[in-house]
Amino acid sequence: MKLQIVLGSESDQEVVRASKMTEVLDAVGIDYDAHVYSAHRNPDDLSAFVREALEQGAEMFIGVAGMAAALPGAIAGATKMTVPVLGVPLDKDGIDSCLYMPPGVPVATMGVGIPGLRNAAIFACQVLTRGRGAQAGEFQNYLARTAKSPKYGIGPAGIRPS
User: Fold this and answer.
1) How far apart are CA 106 and CA 2, in angstroms?
2) Which CATH architecture has domain 3-158?
């Protein structure tokens, strides 16, 4: 899978479903997989998963967590900063963990909660379809279809239509 979505706990699945981020990925044809690993409760399993995913060709990770959202940083560390990691804290309590990363351990924070999840999916499509012919076309088609949606449209240059 090109994209790995990692949730900090089973309960995070509800907000991921509500965000419809996977609908964006499906519409564009992005290969993704979702897993649950806690940066705090099973860090060794998380590191092993990240290593295996990289060996199998993972090109990007999205770390989704609430409260102390250390998960994206733990993923970035496990990748040894070789691929992009997007962080989505699910609530304001996790913002600091995603934003204040030490130098050399980048995590691109996409926003908080449902908007952040949706933005992470769109950003993943921007990166993963670049230079990929038909898939890039699918992403452009998706953008054109959703540009007029007042709730989810992003319109030209990322500006929401009014």
Assistant:
1) 19
2) 3-Layer(aba) Sandwich (3.40)
Q: What is the pLDDT of residue 149?
A: 66
DSSP per-residue letters across the chain: --EEEEESSTTHHHHHHHHTHHHHHHHHT--EEEEE--TTT-HHHHHHHHHHHHHTT--EEEEEESSS--HHHHHHHHHTT-S-EEEEESSGGGHHHHH-PPTT---EE--SHHHHHHHHHHHHHHHHHTT-HHHHHHHHHHHHHHTT-TTT---GGGPPP-
Secondary structure of 34-64 as H, E, C letters: EEECCCCCCHHHHHHHHHHHHHCCCCEEEEE
Of the candidates 43, 62, 52, the residue with the CA atom closest to the CA atom of residue 4: 62
| Cα 108 from chain centroid (whole Å) | 9
**4 pLDDT above the threshold of 70:** yes
